[in-house]
Specification:
single chain, alpha+beta, Nucleoside Triphosphate Pyrophosphohydrolase, seven-stranded mixed beta sheet, globular
Length: about 150
C-alpha cells in the first residue's frame, strides 16, 4: 500500500539561511521533499513560537553544523510541491534570512546529504542540479554580497 502524504490545505511557514563566505554561498543537497536531490539553501519549517531569525539559526545548525547570526530578510518566496499528476501537495512560504559570521564544524546532517560552497560560476555550472527557486535566491544573495565587498 502506497502512503500518500496529506495535502496541506494552507501554506506552511519556513525559512532558508543565506550564508556567504569569501564570495561563496552555502548550499545543501536536499534529502527530503520538497526539492529532494536538488541543491538549495539550508532551511526548513518554523516551529511554533520561534522567530524567523531563531528558525534560520536552528535550521543552519541542524543541516550544516554551522552557527551564524541572522542579519536581515533577503526575500520571501513560494515553494510549491506537486505530485506526479500535478496536484499540489504542499505550499511553503519561505522567508530567506541573510546570515553573517560562521563558526562550528561543517557536516551535512538532518535534511542535507551534502554541503557545497558555491560562487556565481559554480552556481551557473550546476544548472538544473539547483532547484529553480533556490537558484534565483542564490544569484541575488551573491550579487548583494559582491556589492557589499565593492563599497
Amino acid at each position: 500500500m502506497n502512503h500518500v502524504p496529506p495535502v496541506s490545505p494552507r501554506p506552511v511557514a519556513a525559512v532558508s539561511a543565506a550564508l556567504v563566505r569569501e564570495g561563496r554561498l552555502l548550499m545543501v543537497r536536499r534529502r527530503h521533499p520538497p526539492n529532494a536531490g536538488y541543491l538549495a539553501l539550508p532551511g526548513g519549517k518554523i516551529e511554533a513560537g520561534e522567530s524567523l531569525g531563531d528558525a534560520a539559526v536552528r535550521e543552519l545548525l541542524e543541516e550544516t553544523g554551522l552557527h551564524a547570526t541572522p542579519h536581515e530578510v533577503l526575500t520571501a518566496i513560494d515553494v510549491l510541491d506537486h505530485d506526479g499528476q500535478g496536484r499540489l501537495q504542499t505550499h511553503y512560504v519561505v522567508v530567506v534570512i541573510r546570515m553573517a559570521g560562521q563558526w562550528g564544524v561543517e557536516a551535512a546532517a538532518d535534511d542535507a546529504s551534502e554541503l557545497y560552497w558555491m560562487d556565481m560560476a559554480a552556481l551557473e555550472a550546476a544548472g538544473d542540479d539547483v532547484c529553480r527557486t533556490a537558484a534565483e535566491v542564490a544569484r541575488r544573495a551573491l550579487r548583494m554580497e559582491q556589492g557589499r565587498n565593492h563599497r
